[in-house]
Amino acid sequence: MRNRDLAVSIEEALKIVLNSVRPLGCEDIPIMEASNRVLYEDIVSDRMIPPLDDSAMDGYAIIADDIHGASRDCPAKLQIIGEIQAGGSIIGRQVLRGTAIRIMTGAPMPEGADSVVQFEDTEEEGGYVKIFRETVRYNNRRFAGENIKKEDNVLYKGSRLGSADIGILASLDYSAVRVYKQPTVSIISTGDELADVGEEIQIGQIRNVNSYTLYSEVVKYKGLPDYLGIAKDTLKDMREMFLKALESDVVISTGGVSRGKYDFVKDIYSDLNIDIQFDQVNLKPGKPCVFGNKGNKLVFGLPGNPVPTLISFIQFVRPALLRLMGAKRIKKPIVNAYLEEDIDSGKVHHLLRGYFTIKNNEFYVSKTGYQKPSMLRSMSDANCLIVIPEDITKVKAGEKVAIQLINHDEI
Ligand code: AMP
Ligand code: MG
Q1: Distance 6 CA to ligand 1 centre (A)
Q2: What tens digit of pLDDT does each residue of 358-385 get?
């Protein structure tokens, strides 16, 4: 355990968290369920896509030399000797000089033909086709293997599967794919003052918000959330709930990590032999933030206020979940943006809620409103976090600042 009064930097905190992550094992799942899951293996193609040369257009398979010089006034005229439909067979079909075969998009190219002219440039008449335009050789022809060659490494272990990736798996005839398992995540809210959604609220009570924002985030990053409910601010209640939570790969609690009289979360960590790695981060909002591990289990004690809860999740829990699932890319993109208003911040690392727009390919950003940690609305309005490092206390309108694009995929 390090010196408890020392707040670690955001970068240090992330490093500590990632050092504790041991990626989970694998499972085979249907490709239809694989969206956003992380590949456990490289995918190497065992075939060519497309398997044969085929037509990219509906039209006529021809020999380009046959229609050399063709124009509207002086069309080339070829004899139609057959038709090949999409999925059709080419056996026994051969285009010879002076002939053409009607062909549909995706149909295999017949022998002899090098190119396809599209219907729009032709007219059929009594077994012949008039072609009004010449063409370069191999026009509208797709070549075998031009998309994927045999032995191509098309997808990589550790990449998150997007829709095009799943399409590639389908084209290679994978019905199932091997991916990392999803982490199970227990969610606990702590606080005597909390009333859950659906409960009658008494004077002085606060609606439990964090369990729901966190549940949503865990689902978004493909964890398997289990909401355990609200723990009262007593050692007994918390102990029971944390014990149950430790059955999961990851535990996230909120509240009870400040220096208040009833902030018991760290006592529970000690009690349950959860090894505390840090308990404060040099970050506003989100300074009180505990992270510990018990074996391979990761235990996050996030701040109680709704905005720091979410911001800490994005900075520390999100990357941990992604790494547990084997993902290589875990960084939210950061770009520079012109600030549209002055910002005055103290000497601590700030992540402010902002909204960026793009004008003439340049990013501009302004705050989404009041930045109090309890004001979730300015987080809901935000599409980025404005990064103000601790050595900077003032930034003027028109200057550039870094912004973290929290709604964009990891790079
Ligand atoms: P704490 O660190 O437990 O003192 O909590 C800090 C602040 O966050 C207090 O105002 C709490 O009422 C509030 N808070 C704690 N947990 C939640 C929650 N689950 N949902 C909404 N607000 C909360
Ligand atoms: Mg509390």
Answers
A1: 23
A2: 999 999 999 999 999 999 999 999 999 9
